[in-house]
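Quick one:
INPUT:
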């Protein structure tokens, strides 16, 4: 049973100085339809002796009170202004000693100092007093702007954007707390960077220079740039062999004709440009184009000597410089080239060459790859020839396309590509001194007459049988017949030698046979006996 209970719309009652302790169920019970009751200075302790779902105070509706004593076991009830339960606890604890309506921690409340009315969760934090005024340990007493730096190192603890390590912008404020106003981090005065802190009009700065160990950006002496609030450290980078400018993050007056100097460049150099912002020259070169006087932006080289490149650009984007290179490729069949002027046949090794050079010599240490249909392979540096080389053979005759890519970017040089083709001869006829019985094994690319055959082989005469023997002697006009596959020929040569035949394989041939004897030659497949030949 409950000690005191209000049922059946028992409303607007005042209960004062009552005691209901050690009851089996609730100490004080108010039904759900009883409202407007007031509890003042009552004592409800050690109830719920049965251990069930009962409380010192059970409020089924909306009732109020003040200065009551109970344990924390209340249901839907708090004394007026008290964040949890009653003003006093049954063990004698005063839960709100400072009367700020916040209960101390041991009463289940959040008041971290119940002896000081000025300290509770509802109070604002007073910075730098060493006191947790708002009872919130996450509120840092000595970091008012919450930027992670306390007042001993933060030169403005009311502005989270001003702190050690912040980017310096031109606003006449020490943004990074280094003791300097409007002094850049990325571009040092020792390299000639403009001293913006000494500029009288930050909205119209003339003769601007941004410089570091990698190079310099120099504006015309009479050109004014609006540098108000600008963050050049974040939006301008002069890196190893490149310049990158985020023009969208800067005042439009910055995007102007300037002179750029890049240090540690391989001379002579080629300049590339690309739109966007970049972290390396490799990114610009890979996605860019060669910059010259006709491009937009335009580039004009002033000089390149001693590893220092100076050039003018019409406006900003990404610029990169790399050593100018040339490349020539050839193979052993090319005429007029070193190791060339050779004839190569199927199944013979052919050497391919790449001469990748700067203005004075071949570049050693580049990555050169040769490509054929079906694959790409690394070329090898030959210290003797000072060329990149690769050798292979071809199982069939014909013309083969090939290409070479030489990448010397790691050495400061541009990557170059070149294409070529190689002709591989399919077969040869071996001619002995004296008489030879021959036929053509291929369809020649250039058809032979008897005269051209003798001129190219160095033989003296050639004969065929066409209803009778027909003989052509070199230098004469008689019987200048065509020399074609499928037919047999006698040729007389004073000196032995090899005749190269360039053409396509014979897949089928029509032979006109006359009555009587015929002299025939190559046929499209092997014939092993006379019977098979008759059937053919």
């Amino acid at each position: 049973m409950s000690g005191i209970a209000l049922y059946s719309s028992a409303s607007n009652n005042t209960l004062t100085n009552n005691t209901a302790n050690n009851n089996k169920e609730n100490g004080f019970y108010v039904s759900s339809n009883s409202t407007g009751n007031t509890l003042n200075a009552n004592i409800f302790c050690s109830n719920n002796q049965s251990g069930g779902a009962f409380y010192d105070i059970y409020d089924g509706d909306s009732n109020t009170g003040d200065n009551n004593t109970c344990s924390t076991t209340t249901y839907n009830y708090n004394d007026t202004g008290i964040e949890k339960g009653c003003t006093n606890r049954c063990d004698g604890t005063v839960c709100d000693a400072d009367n700020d309506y916040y209960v101390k921690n041991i009463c289940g409340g959040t008041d971290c100092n119940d002896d000081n009315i000025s300290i509770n969760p509802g109070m604002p934090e007073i910075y730098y007093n060493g006191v947790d005024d708002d009872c919130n340990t996450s509120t840092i007493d000595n970091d008012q702007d919450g930027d992670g730096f306390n007042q001993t190192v933060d030169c403005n603890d009311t502005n989270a954007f001003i702190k050690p390590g912040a980017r310096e912008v031109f606003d006449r404020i020490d943004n990074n707390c280094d003791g300097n106003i409007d002094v850049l981090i990325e571009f040092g005065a020792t390299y000639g960077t403009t001293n913006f802190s000494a500029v009288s009009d930050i909205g119209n700065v003339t003769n601007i220079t941004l410089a570091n160990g990698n190079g310099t950006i120099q504006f015309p002496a009479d050109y004014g740039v609006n540098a108000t609030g600008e963050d050049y450290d974040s939006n301008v980078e002069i890196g190893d062999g490149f310049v990158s400018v985020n023009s969208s993050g800067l005042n439009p007056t910055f995007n102007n004709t300037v002179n750029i100097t890049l240090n540690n460049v391989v001379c002579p150099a080629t300049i590339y440009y690309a739109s966007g912002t970049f972290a390396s020259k490799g990114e610009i070169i890979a996605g860019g184009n060669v910059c010259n006087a006709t491009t937009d932006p335009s580039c004009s080289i002033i000089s390149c000597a001693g590893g220092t490149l100076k050039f003018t650009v019409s406006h900003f984007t990404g610029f990169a410089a790399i050593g100018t290179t040339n490349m020539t490729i050839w193979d052993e069949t090319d005429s007029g080239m070193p190791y060339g002027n050779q004839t190569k046949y199927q199944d013979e090794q052919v050497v391919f060459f790449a001469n990748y050079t700067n203005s004075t010599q071949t570049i050693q240490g580049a990555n050169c790859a040769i490509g054929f249909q079906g694959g790409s392979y690394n070329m090898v540096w030959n210290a003797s020839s000072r060329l990149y080389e690769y050798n292979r053979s071809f199982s069939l005759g014909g013309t083969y396309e090939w290409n070479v890519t030489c990448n010397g970017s790691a050495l400061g040089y541009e990557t170059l590509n070149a294409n070529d083709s190689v002709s591989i001869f399919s077969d040869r006829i071996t001619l002995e001194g004296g008489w030879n019985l021959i036929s053509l094994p291929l369809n020649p690319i250039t058809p032979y007459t008897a005269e051209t055959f003798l001129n190219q082989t160095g033989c003296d005469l050639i004969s065929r049988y066409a209803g009778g023997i027909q003989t052509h002697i070199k230098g004469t006009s008689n019987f200048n017949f065509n020399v074609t596959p499928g037919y047999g020929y006698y040729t007389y040569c004073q000196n032995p030698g090899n005749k190269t035949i360039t053409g396509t394989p014979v897949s089928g041939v029509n032979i006109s046979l006359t009555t009587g004897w015929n002299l025939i030659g190559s046929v499209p497949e092997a014939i092993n006996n006379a019977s098979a030949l008759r059937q053919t």
